[in-house]
Amino acid sequence: MSENHSTGPMRWDEHARGGAGGWVRESDAGTGEPEGPSPEPGPGRPALPRKHLLLMVGGGLVVAAVILAVAHVVRPSDSEAGHAAGPSSSGSPSRALPGTTASESGPSDPPTASGEEQATAVDALLERSESDRQQVIDAVNAVEACVSDDSVDTAGQALDDAAVRRESLITDLAALDVGALPSGSLATDSLRTGWQHSADADRAFAEWADDVRGCSPGAVPHTSSYEKGVRSSELATSSKEEFLTLWKPIAADHWLPDRDTAEL
């Protein structure tokens, strides 16, 4: 079986292979057919020239490269994305001060005093109260003696001053924290009541001094103001005894002085 091979010189024909170009023999120049088989067009549509296909594929690659480059430029870095997500709900960045933690950047409650510190603070007020005791006793005795009008007037003023100091103790006692002391609130409530009765007694005895102005030594009448002072003193003693019942074990636990009602 013999094969029919065309012979002759080769040349490039730009119209060969459906317009894509190809090498053809001079003897085939009149036919315009390329060497080798040409692709068959698909059913219902004409075949695209290969040159056009190459241009389409190359153009698609260029477009894809451009899109990737733009996306890389526009996309924020990880650190920029973190800053963008950082603002709080109010619209301003939520950022702690350098060197502080979240708990340190905000206000915090003051530390609570220990039981020893609380007991010591109450004892300091008891010490102040004791310093007034002798002044009150001396003033009442001065009115009872009625040495002169001046001595009675001075005694009356001393009693008024003592009442003011008692009320100052009450104010300072109310400001103390005794939550760490066993029965601390009950104890200070009794002490507060006792000091209030003592202040009432001081004012009543000061009124008594006004009542007896012009008195004679050894003949000082006990007016209603005097009787009121005595009753208030008795109430004060009862409340202070209740306080000391609760206070003594607290004082013992913290090595504080043992006191009695006369000192309060």
Q: Which features characterize this protein?
A:
single chain, 264 residues, mainly alpha, 7 helices, rod-shaped, disordered N terminus
Report on the architecture of this protein.
The chain is mainly α and 264 residues long. It has a domain at 115-263. It is 57% helix and 3% strand. The protein has 7 helices and 2 strands. Strands 1-2 form a two-stranded antiparallel sheet. β1 (10-13) and β2 (22-25) form a beta hairpin. α4 (115-145) packs antiparallel against α5 (149-174). The longest helix is centred in the middle third of the chain and has 31 residues, at 115-145. The protein is rod-shaped. The N and C termini lie far apart (143 Å). 21% of the residues are buried. This is Secreted protein. Residues 82-99 have a biased composition (Low complexity). It comes from Streptomyces glycanivorans. Keywords: Membrane, Transmembrane, Transmembrane helix. The chain crosses the membrane at residues 53-74.
